[in-house]
Amino acid sequence: MGASGAGVDGVMDPDREEGGERRVPARACDSAPVRLLFVCLGNICRSPTAEGVMRSLVEREGLRDSIQLESAGTGAWHVGSAPDERATAAALARGVELEGRARQVRPEDFDDFDLLLAMDGENLRELRRLAPGEEQRAKVRLLREFDPAGADVSGDLDVPDPYYGGAGGFDEVFELVQAACEGLLEQIRPRA
Question: Is 189 a catalytic residue?
Answer without folding.
Answer: no
